[in-house]
Amino acid sequence: MKQNNDLKQILLCAGLILAAVAARIVNAEAHLYNLAPVAALSLFSGAVLKNKSYAYLIPLAAYFISDLYFQVTAGTGFYGISQFFVYGGMALVALLGTRMGQPKALKVFGFSIAGSLLFWIISNFGVFVGGYWGTGLKGFTTTYLMALPFYTKNGTTFFMNSLLGDLIFSGVLFGAYALLKPKTNAAREEVLGVR
Fold first, then answer.
1. pTM (2 decimals)?
2. How far from the centroid of its chain's Cα atoms is residue 24's Cα?
């Protein structure tokens, strides 16, 4: 029975990774940057999965596989030191998810916004470390000013897509989980002869 549960967990993880990779690639090809479920998946994985190593593995694998695709097809998948901060930001969002407790609608909403902001702060710090907008205090302030939503066209697109994507996909993932959980628990009880 344990092997069957392990296989189900592995298949679920693989399915989530492939869905996140596909969504990230489709969104990039449609120029809907950052409107992808990866941060929502990080939050969901951290909150729901009992095996916390899977909670970190799923979003990081999804990011790595899609970055590998972007590298092979366009040469833009691996872009320097700031990428480590992107991956670190995803891991921190998964860690945030582990602190959620029982997922309720208002909690999911608040944690989704917190996850978006956490990722925004960490990933943009990586941009600063990479020296894209300069160094020192001027580079630091310019980096975050350029990253503020509504400050630039790209800032608006990137941040708002990220926030909107996190809210939508968190709602979908946690909503589907809430709907399916009673059915899977009932099926498990029936198989085990428990009522």
1. 0.87
2. 10
